[in-house]
Structure formats: C-alpha cells, structure tokens
Amino acid sequence: MSERDVPIRVLVAKPGLDGHDRGAKVVVKALRDAGMEVIYTGLHQNVDQIVATAIQEDVDVIGLSILNGVHIPISKKLLKKLKEKGVEDKTIIVGGLIPTEEDFEKLKEIGIDGVFPTSTPFDTIVAFIKEKVG
Amino acid sequence: MKEIDEIKRDKNKWVQDCLNKRPIKEAKSVSGFDLDVVYTPADLDDFDYKRDLGFPGEYPYTRGVYSSMYRSSPWTMRQYAGFGTAEETNERYKYLLKEGNTGLSVAFDLATQMGFDSDDPMVEEEVGRVGVAVDTVKDMETIFHGMPLDKITTSFTINGVAPIILAMYVVVAEKQGVPLEKIGGTLQNDILKEYIARGTWLFPPGPSLRLVTDIIEYCTRNLPRFNPISICGAHLRGAGANPVQEGAYTLSNAITYVNYAMKRGLDVDSFAPRLSFLFANREEFFEEIAKMRAIRRLWARIMKERFGAKDPKSMMLRVFASGGAGIDLTKEQPETNIIRAAIGTLGVVLGGAQAIMTCPYDEAYAIPTENSERIALRTQQIIAYESGVTKVVDPLGGSYYVEFLTNRIEGEMKKMMADVEKKGGMVKLIESGYVQGEILKGAYEEEKKLISGEKAKVGVNMFRIEEEVREFELHQMSADTLKNQLEKLKEVKKKRNEQKVKSSLDRLRSVLKGDENTIPYIIDVVREYGTVGEITVVMKEVFGKFREPSIV
Q: A35 and chain B: CB distance < 8 Å anywhere?
C-alpha cells in the first residue's frame, strides 16, 4: 500500500487537434474512482499549455491521450518542454491508439514511463500509477 | 375473449412454463429496457398498419423512404477515404471507383478540419495524416481531377470549416465548367454534434449556427442537388450514446437547424427535402434496425405535424449509414472486424439506408489500406448482389419483435426529446455540458462492462489467443507529404494576386460583422486562392473562441 497521505495528482491531457475524447474522459473518471485527484485539460491543447497546467497544478503524473497517430512527435515535444522547464521528474504516460509494438518500444525509448493502448483495463493503469508514485 | 387477450394469457403461461423448465436469463436492450424471451401480437396490441407503417415510400416512411428501395437499385456505396496530399487521394478515389465504389466521401486531415494551413508550425505532425491536406482550391481541383462533378456525388466530413470547403467545391465546379445546379453531394456541416462528440469546433455555438444556416440558405438557393447538412448520430454513438440517445439528440439537433433556417425566412419545404442524416449500426442487430425505422417515422411526423411541411420529400429522412463503428473494432484478432462490419452493414441495409460506408477492418490500427478498403467494399457488394436481401423491401416489417422495438424506441426518443425542450433545447444543454455528461455516463458504464466481461467482446474478453507480433500491412504515411504540401502551398501563394486576396478577406471581415450571408464572400476569397487558414483567422477575429464546458 502507498505510504502517501495526500492523493496522487494526475493531469489528463488531449494534445493537438484530435477530438476523440471518450477514452480520456473515462480514464479521468476511473482514476478519480481510484482515489486520485484528476484534472482534465479539455480539447486542443498545445504542449506549452499542458506543461504550464502541470506545473500550476503540481501534478505527479501527466497522461496524454492520443488517437490520431501523432503519439511519437507529441511525446517528444512534451518531454523536451518538461526538461526546459526543469520538471522532468513527473511520471508521463501515453494512452490511445498505439498501433504497433514498434511504436510502443519507441515511446519507452524516448522516455515515456507507461504506455496504455486502447482497451487497457483501468486497473492496469491505476496499479501502474500507484506503483510509480504511490 | 378477444384473440389478442388469449395470446396475452397464453404468453404469460408459456413464459411461466419456460421458467419452470429452466431459468431464463434477464436481457436488456442497449438502450436499457427489458426484453421478453419472445414477442407476439399481444405486444403490439395497439398496432395499426396504415398509421404505423404504411407502404414503403409513403408516410410515415417507417418501411423506407422510396417505394421499391433496393429492388430498383442498391444503395450508394460510399467508402470514406483521404490521406496525404491531394494527388495521393485522387489516386485512391480512382482506385475505389474502379472497384465499384459509387460515391465519394472525403476525409480531411485535422489541420484542414481545424482551420490551419499546412505551413502553420502548430500542425506540422498533422499534415496529411488522418485525411487529405487542403490549403487552397488548388488542392480541391487536384482531388477531383478527372472526375467531373456532375457525374459523381461527394460527401464531405467537414464541420468547423464547412463554408470554406463548400466554397472550394463551388469554385472547382466553375473551373470544370459544371453548372452549380448539377452538382450533388453532402456537406456534414453538423456543428452541434462536434461540441458533443467529435471536437472540430472553432467558434462559439451562436456564430457557428449562423454559418450552418448560411450554408443551408446558399445551397437552397443555388445548389438544388446538394445536401447542405448531414445531421449525425454516429459520432454520438461512438462517444457513448445508446440508440435512444443517438436518435433523440440527433433529431433534437435537427430541429434546432430547422428552426434556424425557418427564422432565416426559408420556407420549410424549400430546404427540408435536402436534409440528410448519418447513423451508425453498432452492437445489437435488431435494435439498430428498429432504431432506423423509428427515427424515420418520428422525423416524418415531426416535419408534418410540428413544422407543417407539405412536400412529402420534406418528411423523408434519408440516411447515410455506417456499417459497423470504429469504437467496436478490435486490435485483437483484427480479421474479426470484417465480420463485425459485415453484420453492421447488413443491419443498415435492413434498416433502409440510402448510402453506406463499411468500416475497414484495420481501422483499429490506422487509416485503411487499399486492401482493407476493397474488402469493406466487397462486403457491401456481397450483401447487395449475392445475399438476396435486396429483393424485398423492409423484410423485417411485421416482425413482432422488430415492430415492438420500433414502437418502444420511438416512444423513448419522444420522451427524451420532450425533456430536452423542457430543459431549454440543445444549444443550451450543449453549452452547459449536460448532453456530453449524459453520453459520458454510458461510455464509462460500457468500458466497465467490457473490462468485467459483462459485455462480450470476442477476442478481447473472451476467446482471446496469444497473438504473435506479425507482419501486418498498415497504411504508412509518405515521408514527403509535408514537404510536398508546403511546396505546393508556396507555389500557389507566389502566383496569386496578394492585393486581391487581401481585399476579398477585408470584404469577408465586414460581412462577418453584419448579418449578410457569408458564403458568396468566402467563395470570392477562395477564387483568389485565399487559404483555409487565412479565412479561419478572420473568422476567429470576429467570432471569438468557444470555452468547452468542464464535465469531468
């Protein structure tokens, strides 16, 4: 069990122009039901806005939801920006349409902590976050 | 004792006998009401053939909007396609037409859908990715190169920038020498559902609805064969709406558009015959078919009784339907998606659709390949030409179960629509996030049921197999798309008359501030090779931004 006495704080973000937000919103609900404090950015956020919100809200975890194939370039942009701002200590997870094993590995390689493609059970995501920052 | 009462009594006894033999599992429809184990005439005791069904092609159109339906000719086969540059997309369209596609359906990239030019640094990773990149009318000319616009019909999945795409299509027709009264097609132009589900809104609902109405007015006066709007349930469904919600919210959106058009001074019978609809056939076969029949009947009644339409065409709800839905496709054992899409496609055929797209099986991974598009098209062709289901109109009409479902769904939709009106109408309920919240409830419940196994998903929560990583042909984006697109845009900008572009944009700006119809002015900008981005910037200046309501 977690040693923390304050809830884990998570930012769920929709970067770029992709409007598929069903997955992001249901994950927000699931994480909240698991006792976490979750902030949802809403649609059409650029990486600068996401990083600014993450800093302002002092979150432990940033989760990106991407279903339009831009997961690698957007993840790279986000990691770069976090580094620039000196907040690269956050746990970064990516969910959505991650088509191939190759992409999965690539995301891990560039520094994404957890990758959760469509149809991942909520428990898997919750357990991963608790393990990582609990 | 009346026969119907006898059947009712016998049914109760029969159910009891069944229960004595073995337990009957409870079953619910996707929309949430209980289902009996069998249906009889006693479940339709108020049934009136002439009032509730009538003949195909006759009011209230439950059995279909045209009299002989597919006996005369099958539906339009309209696969959704577009990627990369206009050249690549043009090639794919020619391939699809050669393989028997009978209409086109354009997928735009997200940069275009959201009003950005390809040279905007915001969108470099988006150019040509999920659809074709369009910056200027030059791209549209290329997409339709070799395809005379009076010989094909085209559906455009475009909403926020629908006025610009319409303007481009008009200018392409001019350049091809095709008179406007001869061009046919459909603009999606359903902005309300974008706020609810799909996310490509650009401005607040007020100005967006003005643009929607500008399009309806312009098309009514100038493009008599063109559908200015396709009011969509499919996306609500994908976001988590059940069939009753899909029907009720979609028809409530449709009522909103009709009200706006009538307030503009248009006679209902001048534009209503050109309203088009889009529904999806997702999970439960009979409920989806009944949904299409119920929606058709309810819309006919609304148009006649509420809006006083006189032209029967105003009462005919024409449907472009999706066989299968993206949300139901699985990455696991992807070939099973071919079967899902086939069942969905058969469902929309039995539901009486006018045009159909079938989900290609690889869409859980990426946008489709030529191969997966061809299989999707073959699915439609097998149903149309081999299965025999086209021989008789509305073959499920009169099924106790299907008629029960049709009645029940219509009744539930009416209740939900009355509730929407009582709460202040769709625009208000979208601005407050109410509709989005109601739909999200369904999505969350569904996900939980999929995880627990309460809702079956073959290959995912049952009959899983260890799948090796295997070679699987997926659509690969060309590495040169962005570079090629940027070069083309640069070339167009070099050749155009900057002064004329600027003055046409200035005229548009002042029209946007007033209340004149914007479409002719957007056409003027497009003709001068003004870009999607340039027009959108001016609109954003005048219209401002939409603040998405927070619902989670």
A: no
Q: Listing from the earlier edge strand, what are the strands of the sheet with A37-40?
A: A37-40, A9-13, A61-66, A91-96, A114-117
Q: At what angle do helices B162-176 and B205-222 cross, to 10 degrees?
A: 20
What is the residue whose two structure tokens read 């919103």?
Answer: A25
User: What Rg, from alpha-carbon coordinates, does chain A have?
Assistant: 13
**Are residues B62 and B53 in contact, defined by beta-carbon separation less than 8 angstroms?**
yes
Residue reference for tokens 């350049």 = B175
Stretch(es) of chain B classified as CATH 3.20.20.240: 49-71+155-171+179-430
% of chain B with per-residue pLDDT over 70? 99
Per domain, the residue ranges of chain A are 9-133
Using a CB–CB cutoff of 8 Å, tell me whether A103 touches chain B.
Answer: no
Report yes or no: B111 at the A interface, CB cutoff 8 Å: yes
The rounded distance, in Å, linking the Cα atoms of B274 and B268 is 11
Please give the CATH superfamily to which domain A9-133 belongs.
Cobalamin-binding domain (3.40.50.280)
What tens digit of pLDDT does each residue of B493-502 get?
A: 999 999 999 9
| Residue B355 near residue B320, CB atoms below 8 Å | yes
ipTM for the assembly: 0.94
DSSP per-residue letters across B130-188: SSB---SHHHHHHHTTT--TTT-EEEE---TTHHHHHHHHHHHHHHHT--GGG-EEEE-
pTM value is: 0.97
A17/B114 Cβ within 8 A: yes
pLDDT classification of B467: cutoffs 50, 70, 90 = confident
B60-85 pLDDT, tens digit per residue, is 999 999 999 999 999 999 999 999 99
Half-sphere exposure of B280 (CA within 13 A, CB side): 24
**Given CA atoms B45, B50, B54, B55 in this order, what sign does their dihedral have?**
positive
Residue B490 binned pLDDT confidence (cut-offs 50, 70, 90): very high
Q: Do B447 and A122 touch (CB under 8 A)?
A: yes
The per-residue pLDDT for range B92-148, each reduced to its tens digit, is 999 999 999 999 999 999 999 999 999 999 899 999 999 999 999 999 999 999 999
Mean pLDDT of B29-45: 94
pLDDT at B470: 63
Sorted by sequence, the CB contacts under 8 Å of residue B273 that are 6+ apart come out as B311, B313, B314, B316
The DSSP bridge pattern shows strands A91-96 and A114-117 to be parallel
Q: Which of 3.50.50.60, 3.40.50.1820, 3.20.20.240, 3.30.1120.10 would CATH assign to domain B49-71+155-171+179-430?
A: 3.20.20.240
Q: Which residues of chain B lie closer than 8 angstroms to A32, CB-CB?
A: 552
